[in-house]
Amino acid sequence: MDGSVRYRRSPQLVAYWAAGRLVCVEYEYRVALTLAPDLIPLLDALDDWRTIDDLARQLDEPREVLEPLVAVLAQARLVRTPDDDGGEVAAAWANWMPSAAYFHFATRDGVFQGEPDWKDPARFDRPADAPPSFRTYAGPRVSLPASRSDDGLAGLLEQRRTHRAFGGRPLEVAELAHVLRLTWTASRRGSSGHWFRTSPSAGARHPIEAYVGVLSVRGLEPGLYHFDSRESALVLRRPGLDRSDVAHWLVGQTWFEHASAVVFMTAVFERTMWRYPSPRAYRSVFLDAGHLAQTFCLAATELDLAPFTTMAFKESRIEHALGLDGRSESVVYVAGIGPRE
Q1: Is the dihedral of CA 244, 248, 253, 256 positive or negative?
Q2: Which of 9, 124, 130, 319 could bridge across to 324 with cysteines, CB 3.0–4.6 Å?
Q3: Same domain flag for 284 and 185
Q4: Cα–Cα distance measured from residue 289 to residue 275, given in angstroms and rounded to the nearest whole number
Q5: Going along the chain, which residue ranges are E strands?
Q6: Exposed, middle or buried, 132 (CB in 10 Å: 0-12/13-18/19+)?
Q7: Which domain-ending residue is among 57, 85, 113?
Q8: CA distance linking residue 268 with residue 53, whole number of Å
Q9: How far apart are CA 154 and CA 146, in angstroms?
Q10: All residues at 6 or more sequence positions from 288 whose CB lies less than 8 Å from its CB, including other chains
Q11: What are the φ and ψ backbone dihedral angles of 186, each rounded to 5 degrees?
Q12: Nearest CA to 322 among 252, 224, 185, 236?
């Protein structure tokens, strides 16, 4: 190894005990190593940039002992070099490290059915009976009056379904516009400067952006667009989009490739982090996406269209196509729409 190269432990490390062994995880790259506990002093000494000779003097260990250990740790990125120091994640997630940052990066690009590492849930050791779907308590009980049923909101809620089949006609651009506007358009600005939308958002920060994959919409060329929620306009990000791309990104859910448009919801974490520095606020980002997804589905149902949502997708593939870094802005949810069969 080059004696002039400096090393520092990755800022993205989490360690825990599993089956009596010490496991150290570099969560940006999702690399886990089982380590001997006596390597902890080595990682501790790498709190700042140091050469192998620096480490040898600090730890009073021979260079020939430390050199191969550092090489293994560097290959796994538990230890970084200046040209790959992990500073982008540390800067973007400073307020929410390590708990929210660990959850975000460690759960990206999960393993899905049909992939080599997939574990069939049917093979897990679990009770034969599923847990009860409802919780009930004994005690004084008050029967509530029946809900008013009409063709308004109650009717939309009753009609809302997740669809996996779609009609053959193209979606009209006016239909897509209606659903996007009702879901994402900023309707007005409050006195304190924050924007109002039809769905709630923690602290009115609205971290969720919408990128629309157009497949079959009359009046729009296929491609990836960003929905400008202030101007209610679609901005082309990448021309051309194949249905096979959608199936690939949604990990083999081929039924969704027949939709007319797919919306990739991304989170700009800084918006929420700016107001709420506690890692707990990371939860609110996903709640915001859920609020928007329900609004999206109801707006589509109002037009007698077929909406869907899914959490089965590969973040890295979609972010690469959209030109996002996956650190400051990342895909958190996917929805779609098409005509009904």
Answers
A1: negative
A2: 319
A3: yes
A4: 18
A5: 8-9, 13-18, 21-26, 31-35, 79-80, 171-172, 188-189, 195-196, 208-214, 217-218, 223-228, 233-239, 261-268, 305-310, 329-339
A6: exposed
A7: 85
A8: 42
A9: 12
A10: 199, 200, 201, 202, 206, 207, 208, 267
A11: -75, 115
A12: 224
Q: Which residue is listed with tokens 């460690």? A: 106
Q: Is the pLDDT of residue 301 over 80?
A: yes
Number of domains in the chain: 2
Cα dihedral 23, 26, 32, 36 in deg (nearest 10): -40
> Is 0.70 surpassed by the pTM of this model?
yes
The reply to whether 244 falls in a domain is yes
CB 250 within 8 A of CB 322: no
pLDDT at 119: 66
Asked if the model's pLDDT at residue 18 lies above 80, the reply is yes
Asked if residue 35 belongs to a domain, the reply is: yes
User: What is the Rg, in whole angstroms, of the alpha carbon atoms belonging to the chain?
Assistant: 25
Q: Where does a domain end: 55, 85, 115?
A: 85
Domain that holds residue 50: 8-85
The closest of 213, 208, 171, 196 to 300, measured between CA atoms, is: 171
Overall average pLDDT of the 244-271 stretch: 96
Rounded CA gap, 312 and 146, in Å?
A: 37
Give alpha helix (H) positions in 186-253.
243-249
Q: Strand 223-228 vs strand 233-239: parallel, antiparallel, or unpaired?
A: antiparallel
Q: What are the tokens at 174?
A: 């006016």
d(CA 330, CA 265): 8
Count of all residues that appear for the chain in the document: 341
How does DSSP classify residue 311? -
* Tens-place pLDDT, residues 304-318: 999 999 999 999 999
Gap between the Cα atoms of 3 and 56, Å rounded:
12
Three-state secondary structure call for residue 285: helix
* CA pair distance 293, 184, nearest whole angstrom: 10
User: Structure tokens of 28?
Assistant: 């940006």
Per the CB < 8 A criterion, the answer to whether 237 and 320 are in contact is no
